[in-house]
Amino acid sequence: MGHGHHHHRHEHGHGHTHGPEEATALPAAFDTTVPDEALTPEQRSRRSLLRRAGLLGAGLAAGGVLGQATPAAATGGRRTHGFLWLAGDHHIHTQYSSDGKYRVVDQVRQGAKHGMDWLVITDHGSATHAKIGVEKVNPDIKEARTAYEDTLVFQGLEWNIPGAEHGTVFVHPGRNEVSVLKQFETDYDGSVKGASDSTPANEALAVAGLAFLGDQVRRRKVKDALMLANHPARRGVDSPHEIRAWRDATAASGRQIAVGFEGAPGHQAAGLPAPLGMARARGIYDNNPSANSFAGYPLESYRTWGGFDWMTATVGGLWDSLLAEGKPWWITANSDSHNVYADTAVRGPGGDFNANGRYEDPVYGGKIDITQGDYWPGQYSRTHVGADGFSYAAVMDGIRAGRVWVDHGQLVSGLDVRVLGGGRWATLGGALHVRKGTNVTLTVDVALAGGPNWAGFTPELARVDVIQGDVTGPVGDKDTFTAPTAKVVKSYEIDKPSGTVRLTYQLGRVDRPLYVRLRGTDGNRSGVGPMGAAVDPAGPAIDVVGDADPWRDLWFYSNPVWVLPS
Q1: Rounded-to-integer distance, Cα 485 and Cα 497, Å
Q2: Where does the record place the region Disordered (predicted)?
Q3: Architecture of domain 84-401
Q4: How far apart, in whole angstroms, are the C-alpha atoms of residue 280 and residue 293?
Q5: Pick from 381, 424, 180: which is nearest to 262 by CA?
Q6: Are the CB atoms for 94 and 121 separated by under 8 Å?
Q7: CATH code of domain 411-565
Q8: DSSP assignment letter at 349
Q9: Is the pLDDT of residue 202 over 50?
Q10: Residue 287 has pLDDT above 50, yes or no
C-alpha cells in the first residue's frame, strides 16, 4: 500500500518511550519551577491558558496530552519522554507582504500572547519579495527569536504554486535559510515566473520546485524543508492530480516535502455579518469557477463548511480519497493573519513597497477597524503538533509524522488518540501493524475547555464523531476525489461541560487495512454531509456568505491513525 514502511517508526508498544534524545528545556510558561512573577506578560498569558485547561505540568510532558508522565517540576523543567503538544500557525503575513502591515515582532508578540509555541512568517512570494523582502525580513525574524525565546519563529514564504493556489514553504533555521528560500522563490514561484495558469508545464515547474527543496535538504544546505498547501479549495485550482503530484514529488528520496494542506483556512472573521463585520465569507471563500479551475469540483466546494475547507469537511471526499491510498497527507488550521479584526493599527505613512520591499511600521491609536477579516495567530485557529522536544527540528518532524490535531475557538484543551491491539499502540499519523484478525480498540481522551476563549466565553463540546475508511491502495485516476468506504461509524454525545472524557470504540477483529480519524463540534450548526446521510448524517453545514459568525460554529479535527493487518 506504500504505507507500512513510512509509518513503521511510529508504531509503539505499551510503556514504550522514544529513543535517547538530548534533553530540551521547556518554555518558561510550561516549567512549573519558574514562578509566575518571573514570567514576561506573554509567558504569563500562556501559563494562564495552560492552567485553566488543567494542562500545566505533567499533562504536557506525557506520551499524549492526557497520558501519565513525570511532572515537569520533578525533572528540573526538562522533558524525559513522550510528546510535547505545541500549538502553532504556519501562515502569517507582515509588512513585507504587499497586503500586510504588521512588523514581525507584532505578530510574534501576539502569537505568544495567544498561546502559540511556534510560528512561520510567510510573506507573499513576488518579484519584489524575491529581490528584496526575503533578505530584509530575516534580521527582523532573528530579533523576534531573541526577544521571544519561548516561541519558535521559522522563516518561510507563501509560495504562488505554479499552475495552482498558494502554499506555505519553510525551512529549518540556519546560515542558508535566506539563500535557499531566495533561490526557490526566484526559480519556482508562479508569480515571479509568470506561471500561474493551469498548464502541464506549470504543474511540472511546481514539482521541480519541491524536488529542489528536497535536494537542498539532501545536500545539507538546510536541515529540513516543508510545504503545506494553503486554502486549497478557495478558487478550485488545486486539482486532485496536482495534490497527488506534490505529495509524491520527493517520495523517491525518502523525505516527503509536501505533507498536507490547510484543513481550515484563515480569514475566519470575514464571515461576520454587517454591521459588525465585513460580511463576506469565512476564509474569503466566496469565489466561483474560473478557466483555471478543475472542472470536476462542485459549486459547493468553493465555500467553507463549519469554517473548514470542503476537501477536509466532506466525509468520503478528497482528503479521504488521499488517505485511502495509504499515503500520508495531513491537515492544519491557521490564521492567514494580514489585517486583524477590531485592531486600531494602520500602515505607517510614506514609504515605497516596490522599492523597499516593505511598508513603514504600523501606527496605532486610530479607530477600531471592524472591516478586516483576520485574527491574530492563536486567537481563533490552532494547529497542535506532537513534538519530541521543544525545538525547530522536533516541530518539523511532528508535522511530517502527522502528529497533528486542529481546533477553532479553543473548543477543546487537549486530545490523546490511541489505537491499540496485539500489545501495541499507535497515535495520530502512525500505523498499528497487527496480525490479521487481531482485536483492535480506539481510545480517545479529550480535555474539555477549561475556561473562556478569546471571545470571552467557555465553549462546550457537544459531540465527537469517529470516521473510518478502508485503505484501498493507489488510484488509477489521479483526479479521483471520493472514497466510497469512508463514513461516520460512531458518534458520542458529550454531556459534561468541563474536565475530561474518555471515549472507546471497538474496531473489532481487523482483517483489512483501514484508518480512523476524529471530528468534534459544539453542536450549534450541523447538516447532512455532501455524500448523504448514510455517510455523514450530522456534519458541518455549508457556511452562509455574509452571515457566518465563526465563534458560533466551532469544530476540531484530528489527523488519522492507520491499522494495517498482515
Answers
A1: 33
A2: 1-22
A3: Alpha-Beta Barrel (3.20)
A4: 21
A5: 381
A6: yes
A7: 2.60.40
A8: S
A9: yes
A10: yes
User: What grid cell was written down for 472?
Assistant: 484501498
Which candidate, 117, 159, 43, places its Cα nearest to that of 377?
117
C-alpha–C-alpha distance, residues 274 and 370, integer Å: 9
> Angle 134-147/177-188 helices, nearest 10 degrees?
140
From the CB of residue 44, how many other CB atoms can be counted at a distance below 10 Å? 16
Instruction: Return the DSSP state at 251.
Output: G
pLDDT at position 379, please?
98
pLDDT for 366: 83
Calpha distance 224→336 (Å, rounded): 23
Domain segments of the chain: what residues?
A: 84-401, 411-565
Contact 404, 330 (CB under 8 A): yes
CB-hemisphere CA count at 13 Å for 129? 29
- The grid coordinates listed for 76 are 528540573
| 299-331 pLDDT, tens digit each | 999 999 999 999 999 999 999 999 999 999 999
**Which residue, chain included where needed, has cell 502591515?**
101
Picking from 545, 540, 548, the residue whose alpha carbon sits closest to that of residue 523 is: 540
Cβ atoms within 10 Å, residue 351: 13
- For 10-61, list the strands marked E by DSSP: 12-13
Q: Which three cell numbers stand for residue 506?
A: 471497538
Residues 6+ apart with CB under 8 A from 24: 78, 79, 389, 390, 391, 394
Q: What is the 3-state secondary structure (H, E, C) of 289-308?
A: CCCCCCCCCCHHHHCCECCE
Please state, in angstroms and rounded to a whole number, the distance separating the CA atoms of residues 2 and 250: 14
Question: Per the structure block, which three cell numbers stand in for 116?
Answer: 502559540
pLDDT per residue as tens digits for the range 107-152 = 999 999 999 999 999 999 999 999 999 999 999 999 999 999 999 9
User: Which residues neighbour 64 within 8 Å (Cβ) at sequence distance 6 or greater?
Assistant: 82, 83, 386, 416, 417, 418, 427, 445
Per-residue pLDDT tens over the stretch 291-307:
999 999 999 999 999 99
User: 3-state class of 506 per DSSP?
Assistant: strand
Say if CB 298 and CB 531 are below 8 A apart: no
Spatial strand order of the sheet with 412-421 comes to: 12-13, 424-426, 412-421, 438-448, 500-510
What does the DSSP 8-state code read for residue 258? E
Distance CA 23, CA 527 (A): 47
Residue 488 near residue 467, CB atoms below 8 Å = yes
CA 454 from centroid of its chain's CA atoms: 19
- Residue-level length of the chain: 566
Alpha-carbon torsion 167, 168, 174, 179, what sign?
positive
